[in-house]
Specification:
heterodimer, A: 121 residues, mainly alpha, B: 232 residues, Four Helix Bundle (Hemerythrin (Met), subunit A), two-stranded antiparallel ribbon, flat
Chain lengths: 121, 232
Amino acid sequence: MTTKEPGQQHPIRIYLVVWGLLFLVSALSYSTDFIDRGFWRWMLILLFMVLKAGFIVAVFMHMRWERFALISAILTPPVLLLVLVGLMTIESDYTRSTRIEHFGDGTRDESMPAAVRETDN
Amino acid sequence: MIGVERQTIQANSQVPETTLETLADDWGSDIATLKGVPWGKAMMWVFLLSDTFIFTCFLVAYMSVRMSTVEPWPNPSEVFALQAFGVSIPLLLIAIMTIILISSSGTMAMAVNMGYQRRKEAATNLILVTALLGATFVGMQAFEWSKLIFDEGVRPWTNPFGAPQFGAVFFMVTGFHGLHVSAGVIYLLTIAFRIRRGKYDESNFEIVEITGLYWHFVDLVWVFIFALFYLW
């Protein structure tokens, strides 16, 4: 369990427990498909997604036993990607509002440009 | 400052003469940042980090087109429903594919454990089981693709269900993931045969852990695709 050992040698039990948990969380994740789309469905999808990702990274990929130098080097950059997600959310909202303003709200009327209508065929 | 520099230089056997030599000397000065991490493992982590950025680009692009389209997004739970026992079960094939990929992650974790215990035979067999499960996953994905392309007429630029961007996102994201799984199967088979040939007998079989990192990453990406593309 210490970092002095050259390899990552851990009891098999913990792998089996996490394996079982992954199946359980996957089943829960699949069950969200039977909830109507809305706030709680999205929250549950994200919760189960983060749980599964956490189990895989922490135990299967041995991150919880690594030194902090490696953990911070690998896990910090993906967190920064949330900035990109935030920026693109703002950008997409803007694109959508300009589309509605210029092309209508998606109901296929003749005022839409031919190029836009063609994609529907 | 000068004193510190002089001390550092004196510690080395040869005094660097140019700036370029000093630079090379400093970078080559036997200081490891990631202590206790084999270089192969560190490099695999760096590769996986770059791959994370690629998949994030795909998923953010998906988020952008889905948020900005004015046409209704196709409902994945209907698009990917499958007829079984006379009823339509939503996302049936995708659920089975998820179970297969999680199973393969488990067998891979076991293979890593067996490798560090130096049980070569068990490690090799578990890697082969992992590869077989991976190949099954790719086969099911091929079935899903052909069903959507030939039966439903989904194209990257159009589809009968709604927003045309749906096809582009589907083929791009699942295609790139499927490519990773296929490459992973070849990678696993290569490592399994190399272990059997005795190529790693001198090492402590950290190669199995490095291979495992790649395979778990493929499973990890599927977790995000399953949640954000199929369930959302």
